[in-house]
Design a protein that fits this description.
Number of helices: 12
Structural class: alpha+beta
Protein name: FAD-binding molybdopterin dehydrogenase
CATH class of one domain: Alpha Beta
Radius of gyration: 19 Å
Largest sheet: 5 strands, antiparallel
Strand content: 15-25%
Distance between the termini: 56 Å
GO molecular function, one term: FAD binding
InterPro entries: CO_DH_flav_C, CO_DH_flav_C_dom_sf, Diverse_Substr_Oxidored, FAD-bd_PCMH, FAD-bd_PCMH-like_sf, FAD-bd_PCMH_sub1, FAD-bd_PCMH_sub2, Mopterin_DH_FAD-bd
Keywords: Oxidoreductase
Strand order of the largest sheet: 4-5-8-6-7
Length: 319
């Protein structure tokens, strides 16, 4: 790890007025600094900044510095969010990691994290060895000729499914952006991963009211049951009346360069009977436009099976 200056602003105003890299739980930033992937000259420890609180009175509002474990266990948090958080990491990491930091975490692509290897995200123009190399864990949706790195966050998938927004603050004011449009596809500029502007800080996560999201789940398929990143995941909220689907919200993780919303699957479900056959027919729409690499083509059928599994989990006993 290279030398750096550490300061600890106590207010939002002081934090956004100071140039530097923000540090909350440090579960991603410190790792990358140790690997020399990131070498900030100035780090701002923002843990004393008043960006906490969980409010479920009208939808859900979460301060950016709330810890993952506290959010997961809070009454009134939608099940899909709680489950995504619980499946994200070990208890120790969940106790440290903040929701804002989790949404800003960098890809777990091994080429990105190995400074001896080229990587367009880390060093633009250097190349993407994953395209022809070890790519089993990589994305099949939203990829480009410059990058196929998978987005790492579990809870971001759940939040995208629920149309969450971020409130961002800076020295010039604040703005709100939809989380689904906050993340950028790699295209020709994979180093630009999101819409956070210089000097901006995530202040709050806002989930609009959705009463029927009380019936929701997050299914995560991974190589081992303990702490591991997703091969594929599905965040699903489902509204069923009289054994027929009224509405659905679905997003996928582990398969895209960003959390991947699936409006085509949602549309196929609306009005359909809550049956295995209807779920399989709707899930067959998932993965349209996929570009599998040499070792990850299995993710397309896996995505469809994962969605069906989540739908069945939500309707078991009601069909």
């Amino acid at each position: 790890m290279r030398p750096f200056e550490l300061t600890a602003p106590a207010t939002v105003e002081a934090a956004v007025a100071s140039p530097g890299t923000f540090l909350a739980g440090g579960t991603t930033l410190v790792d990358l600094m140790k690997l020399d992937v990131l070498a900030p000259q100035r780090v701002l420890d923002i843990n004393e900044v008043p960006l906490r609180g969980i409010d479920t009175a009208d939808g859900l509002r979460i301060g950016a510095l709330e810890r993952m474990s506290d959010i997961a266990g809070h009454p009134g948090v939608y099940p899909v969010i709680s489950r995504a958080l619980l499946l994200s990491a070990s208890q120790q990491i969940r106790n440290m990691a903040s929701i804002g930091g989790n949404l800003m975490q960098r890809t777990r692509c091994t080429y990105f994290r190995d400074v001896a290897m080229p990587c367009n995200r880390r060093e633009p123009g250097s190349g993407c060895p994953a395209l022809s190399g070890a790519n089993r864990m990589h994305a099949v949706l939203g990829t480009s000729d410059s990058c196929a790195a998978t987005h790492a966050s579990d809870v971001a998938v759940a939040l995208v499914a629920l149309d969450a927004e971020l409130r961002l603050v800076s020295a010039t004011g604040s703005r709100t952006v939809a989380l689904g449009s906050f993340y950028r596809l790699p295209g020709d500029t994979p180093e630009l991963e999101n819409d956070l502007r210089p000097g901006e800080l995530i202040a709050e996560v806002v989930v609009p009211p959705l009463e029927w999201a009380a019936k929701s789940t997050y299914v995560k398929v991974r190589d081992r049951q303990s702490y591991e990143f997703a091969l594929c995941s599905a965040a699903v909220a489902l509204h069923v009346e009289d054994s027929r689907v009224v509405d659905a919200r679905i997003a996928a993780g582990g398969v895209g360069t960003v959390p991947w919303r699936l409006p085509e699957v949602e549309a196929a479900l609306r009005g359909a009977p809550a049956t295995v056959a209807a779920f399989e027919a709707a899930a067959a729409r998932a993965g349209e436009g996929a570009r599998p690499l040499s070792a990850n083509g299995f993710k397309v059928p896996l995505l469809r099976r994962t969605i069906v599994r989540a739908l069945l989990e939500l309707t078991e006993g009601s069909r």
